[in-house]
Specification:
Length: 332
Amino acid sequence: MIKKILPIALLGAALISNTGCKHESELKKLKGLEYKIVRDTKGKKAGIGDIVEFNVIAVMDTMAGQPLDTLGDSRKMPAPNHPVSRVDSDRAGDFKSVFSRMAVGDSAIVYISVDTIIKSIPPGQKVPPFFKPGGKITVYLSLISDKTREQYEMDMKSKQEEMQKKMQEDAAKQMPIDDKILQDYFAKNNLKPTKTESGLYYSVSKPGSGENPKAGQMVSVKYLGKTLDGKQFDANMDEKGNLVDGKELLTFPIGEGRMIKGMDEGIMLLKKGAKATIYIPSPLAYGSQARGEAIPANSILIFDVEVADIKDAPQGGGRPMQMPQQQQQQNQ
C-alpha cells in the first residue's frame, strides 16, 4: 500500500471528475459497501469469470478537516502494468464486487466499511493501525478493459510470443558483440578457454572424476560470480575456493532451467570435484535485462565454480536453493 498524505485535489480529475457529493439516496448497497456508478456508458457489463483491467485510487477518512490518507493509486503504474482482476461473485467489503456492475469506460465510487474489513481479518493477524473502527475507505474505480478468460489467455500468449521473439532477435544481435569482447579479453589476459556451440566459454583447472551430471540430477556447487571488469556480484566461496561463513552450497536440478542458460550448460560440462571458470555471454545470462546496479544490461558474466556433489533427485522432489543473483530466468 502506498502510505502518503495528499491533498484531495491531487487524487486525479480524470478518474474522479463529476463524482459530485455523496447522496445516500443515490447509493446502492452490497455486502459491507455502498457504491455509485458515476459514469455509465450503457455498455455490456463485465461477466463473472471475466478478466478486467482497471485503475483504482483508495483513500481513508482521517480526522475532520484534515487531508485524506491515500492508500493506493494505480495510475502511478503505466500500461501495461495496470492492475487486473478476475470478476467474482460478491464478497463482503471487496470493492471488486462492483466490477460486475460496470462496463468498459465506466467509473464508480465505492465506500467500504472498515468494520467489515476488520471482521474479515483472521484471528491473530494484526489490524493495520490506520483501520479505525467506524471509518470508511473511499475507492474510485475506472474500468479499462474487459475480456473473457479465453480472450485474456490468448492475448497473454500472443504478448509472450512477441516478447520471446524480440528477446531472440536481441540475443542474435548481441552474441557476436559479446564474442568479440570476450576474444579481446582472452587475448589480453593470455587465456585459451574452450568454446561451445552455444557461444559459452569455459576453462577447467581441475577435471574431477566420474560422469558428467545428467539432466534432472541434483548438483551442489561453490561459485563466485563477477562481471567482466572483475566486480564481484554474488558468491558462496572466496577467492581461495573456501565456502564463505554463513553460506551454503548452491544446490539445484541441472538441465531444468533453474539457473540462467550459461550456468546450466557450464555445470553440465563438469564432473564431481571439478573446478572451472565459465565465461557467459549476456544472451546466455540476463541479456538486456539489468539486475540492479551490480549487473547492467548486456553484461558478460564470469563464474569460478567447483562441483561439490552430484546426486539423483530425491523422490517427490524438493525445493532447491537458488543463487540470490542467479535466480531462475525465463529461457530466451
